[in-house]
Every structure is written in C-alpha cells, then in structure tokens.
Amino acid sequence: MTGGSKWVWFAVIGIAGLAAPFLFPAFITQIAVGWLMVLFALTWDTQGGQMSYNSFGNVLFFGIGMYMCVSVQVMLFTDLGEYTAAGGAKSVTFTADQYVTGLVIGMIAGAIVAVTVAAIIGSGILGLRGHYFAIGTLGLGIAAGEIAGGWELIGAGSGISTPVFPDPLGDRSFFFYFFFMALAVVAFFVLRWLYSGRFGLAINAIRDDEDKAESMGLATTKYKTMSWCISAFFLALAGGPFGLLVGFVDPRDTAFAGITFGVWMVLMAILGGKGTIWGPVIGAVIFHITQELFWTFLLGWQRVALGALIVIIVVFFPKGILGWFRDTWPERFGHRVEEAPAEGGRS
C-alpha cells in the first residue's frame, strides 16, 4: 500500500467515523463503545503483540482512571464520602462548567496515577516471563477489584453513581462518542509513530529474543516499563468517560472487569493479527460487531456463541485475519514472491 493510498484510507475512515452518529443515531452508544474496543486492542498489543508479553491486567489502569476521574469530579464540588454514602444518597447537580472542569482534571489525575502505578509495579512484574507474567497480571486486576469493592469512600461494593450529564452540553452519547473516537485516533497515530522509531525496534527485539537483546546492551526492563506506561496512560484517559457514559461505576463489572474487558483486549488483538498496527483495529471492529449481533439475536445463547467464536479464532486464524491475508496474498502487502525456476532453467 503506497503512502498516498494510506492517507486516502485514513480520510475515508475519518469521514465514516464523523458521519456514523448522524447516520445511525439509534446506535451511537454501541458505536462509541466500538471506538473504546479499538483503544483496548491497540493498547494491549503494545505488550502482547509487539513484545509477546501477554498481559491480562491492563484493565487495572482502565479501572484506576475510572475511579480517579469520577472521584475527583465529585470531590471538587462536594464531599465524596457523603456522595457515596448509601450508594450515593446525596443528590448533587453539576453545572456544565463544573462537569467539564471536573472531567478534565479527573482524567489528568487518573492518567498520572495510572502511569505512576505502571512505572512502580512494572519494574517488578515485568521481570516475569511467559505464563508467570500472564498469571501475575491477572492477579493485579482481581486484587484491584477486591480493594475497590471494600473501600467505603468510593462506594465499596455498591459502586458510585456518576454525576448527571448537564443538559446544556447536549446529548451525552454524542459527547462521549466523539471523545472516544478522538482518543482512539490519537492512540493509533501515537503508537504508529512510536513503532516506526527506536522504541518499536527495541520492543520488537524483546519479542524476537529478549536474552540476546539484553546481552547486546538493550535496557529491556526500561522499554517494557515504558510500553506498559503508554498503555496505562491511554486506558486511564478512557476509564472516567466510560464510567460517565454508563452512568454507574461498579468495581468488578465496570471498572476492573477482567472477565470481560480484560479478556476481550486479548481476543480482539489476536483476531485481527497481533504485532501489527492495523490488526488490533480490524479485530476490534469485527469482534464488537459480532458480539452486538450475538447479544441481539442470540439472547440466552450469546456466551455460547462467543465461546465458539473464540475457538474459531484460535484454530483457524492463529495469525489473525491480517496474518491470514498476508499469507494468502503476500504480493498485496508488499512482499516479493519469487517464482520457482523452471526445470533445466540454468543458462
């Protein structure tokens, strides 16, 4: 694909994304969540695809961002303990300015805390490899959900009802749709830029042979921690707005939902083709659309169908959809295909 044609595709996707909420107003929330799924897959692939460090704990940063954003948004204008008491007994009405100010400051606070946590625990847990690392990260998400579920200040197991979206800001779904679209697009181009430079070469070297990379002087722990911090940053920025879109923050089903979001991140990247920039995007779109269809037409059997989809992904698309296309039509992806020499063809 030439540089010019790439930008044409970018323009087409951008126009389609901007037009989608107006063309399909009844599905704005679902499409907004679709952009979130793209972000999930892109950020997971930073470790799982580009470095082959399969993390099941990235949802930790999503939950931290969600709780920090909502808590800060409330604390700026009222007492958080009173607000969360008895599941949010205190009713507070936020003006448009208060809502936006709290949202922005809360997102920044969430991103700072999430990146700090990633940097602190990253140097330790990223020393693990293989299934030890996967199990360790899985434990992080579970532990965070249990801690949040027992912390009275943030609602404990009852969760937090998020501030009501002010009428002057228009439609809530439209507001957050364009936020998630913008965040996913920014993440895509930032990661694309990082992968094209020294950072991309370093994390790919870790994927190919970490021991050899270390022996050649590459600071592998530093790059692994940097990669985790980048994922933490984008996931934390998305956490608060998602909680506000849903309208309620539950510690296990919304914030630290490892059994859903934590697993879906992995599946979407694998489905599209991990280790590529477009694979996670393709996988997220297909997975999200398929899942919505299952929930619409196979209610009661949707989890069985989703399990069957997972089996199909693993068995028939081990390299992902993008990898399958590359193997089938390599010449269309810029790979030179040598023709077999004819018998007796030596001159």
Radius of gyration: 22 Å
Approximate shape: globular
The ordered H/E elements are: HHHHHHEHHHEHHHHH
Structural class label = mainly alpha
Please report the distance between the alpha carbons of the first and last residues. Answer: 36 Å
Describe this protein's structure.
With 347 residues, this protein is an all-alpha fold. It has a domain at 27-257. Helices cover 71% and strands 1% of the residues. It contains 14 helices and two strands. It has helices at residues 3-23, 28-48, 59-75, 80-84, 96-125, 130-149, 172-195, 198-215, 220-246, 251-255, 258-272, 279-297, 302-316, 320-328; strands at residues 160-161, 248-249. The protein has a two-stranded antiparallel sheet with strand order 1-2. Helix 2 packs antiparallel against helix 9 (220-246), helix 11 (258-272) crosses helix 12 and helix 12 runs antiparallel to helix 13 (302-316). The longest helix is centred in the first third of the chain and has 30 residues, at 96-125. The protein is globular and about 60 Å long. The model has no long low-confidence stretch (mean pLDDT 86).
Brief description of this entry?
With 347 residues, this protein is mainly alpha-helical. The chain has helices spanning 3-23, 28-48, 59-75, 80-84, 96-125, 130-149, 172-195, 198-215, 220-246, 251-255, 258-272, 279-297, 302-316, 320-328; strands at 160-161, 248-249.
